[in-house]
UniProtKB/TrEMBL annotation:
This is M48 family metallopeptidase. One of its GO terms (biological process) is proteolysis. Belongs to the peptidase M48 family. The keyword Transmembrane helix applies. Keywords: Cell membrane, Hydrolase, Membrane, Metal-binding, Metalloprotease, Protease, Transmembrane, Transmembrane helix, Zinc.
Length: 325
């Protein structure tokens, strides 16, 4: 299919307000800058490359040339002038990552190549390019090192309040995924392919059976629409130490973004250009949007809690009336 080339598109076009709000909150943590500097000093660019590429093969014109050509197409669609190196590593989980400090590179797991179609691989590559273009890679690299090695094995963080740092980093990490799901859609320009990719990453490929993306869309709506405040609490607990949001949540967020009309506007040429971006220019607006997003979530949770309490009170009152007869 023909895709619209998004000439000079800036990452601010697709970044989720919760991504920006979570990043601002993380940067405000006491000791955050100290921790970042400690990571960079301890590992360095070469150290990170050794850690992530000890068992990986670099993609190029003669090494997986079809994947290399697909990577070229994604870079062209997003009009990104630099070409991060692409690697494949032998791993049984469908995933990929953008890694590095000064010179980001992308690593894609071999399971993605095994289980996904060419167009679904486009989704994965566009998603990772989104992280590169948004400047996420330094913080995400740190998060991945923490997940790989564990906080307790990083003694240079001894002076940092570990748990708040870890929770804040993972909260932002999850929200940055929502931003780059939008980048994946812009790089692919086929909503059903993106959602099918989510479905396969959640439950695997067909294996001779049938997958139904419409049923998956309905599942994502069911997950988000519940009547229980306790379910809301459980969801928060279940995601606190996860690096990625649940795929049903990601599907719901992406469908809401499309329904807002922003996606169609971007394809029509209404988006922020890199040439027009000035550092910090829209920071106040970003903070307001992020606060609004979290405020809406909090209000919804309080409303659910109030509704649950009211129903419990009514049930108790009815039971007492019944007992008094």
């Amino acid at each position: 299919m023909a895709r619209t080339v998004l000439t000079d598109i800036a990452s601010q076009t697709w970044e989720h307000p919760a991504d920006r709000a979570a990043l601002a909150a993380m940067r405000a943590l006491p000791g955050f800058d100290t921790a970042i500097n400690a990571f960079a000093k301890a590992f360095g660019e070469r150290g990170v490359r050794h850690l992530f590429l000890a068992s990986a093969v670099r993609v190029g014109p003669t090494q997986r040339p079809q994947l290399d050509a697909l990577w070229t197409e994604v870079l062209q669609t997003m009009d990104w002038p630099t070409r991060p190196q692409l690697y494949v590593t032998q791993t049984p989980t469908i995933n990929a990552g953008a890694v590095g400090f000064g010179e980001p590179f992308v690593v894609i797991n071999s399971a993605a190549i095994e289980h996904l179609t060419r167009e679904e691989l486009r989704v994965i590559l566009a998603h990772e390019l989104g992280h590169v273009m948004s400047g996420h890679v330094t913080y995400r690299t740190i998060a991945q090192i923490i997940l790989m090695l564990g906080m307790g094995n990083l003694p240079f963080l001894a002076g940092v309040a570990i748990l708040p740092f870890q929770l804040a980093l993972l909260e932002w990490y999850r929200k940055s995924e929502l931003s780059c799901d939008r980048a994946a859609l812009l790089g692919t320009q086929d909503p059903d392919v993106v959602l099918t990719s989510f479905m396969k990453m959640a439950g695997g490929r067909e294996f001779g059976d049938t997958l139904d993306v419409e049923a998956f869309k309905e599942q994502s709506r069911e997950y988000e629409v519940d009547d229980s405040a306790w379910d809301t609490v459980l969801k928060a607990i279940n995601t606190a130490f996860r690096s990625h949001p649940f795929f049903t949540v990601r599907a719901g967020e992406l469908q809401r973004w499309m329904a807002s009309g922003d996606y169609a506007k971007i394809l029509a040429g209404e988006y922020v250009r890199r040439a027009d971006v000035k550092p910090g220019e829209h920071l106040g607006d970003d903070i307001k949007k992020g606060a609004s997003y979290y405020g809406d979530q909090a209000k919804a949770a309080v409303d659910k809690l109030s509704d649950t309490a009211k129903r419990a009170k009514d049930a108790f009152t009815d039971a007492m009336k019944g007992g008094a007869r």
